[in-house]
Design a protein that fits this description.
mainly alpha; about 40 residues
């Protein structure tokens, strides 16, 4: 069931991205926040 949920979540993220709409992260950091955090720890 988790794989099925991840599939649909991916579809929602893709469609929102194509329309230029921001998507709130469901778990933890956004991709941008993660990239920024990883750069500051180096």
């Amino acid at each position: 069931m988790a794989e099925h949920e991840a599939h649909h979540r991916g579809q929602l993220y893709l469609m929102a991205s194509l329309r230029g709409r921001p998507v709130a992260p469901l778990f933890g950091l956004t991709e941008e926040q993660l990239a920024t955090a990883s750069k500051t720890k180096s």
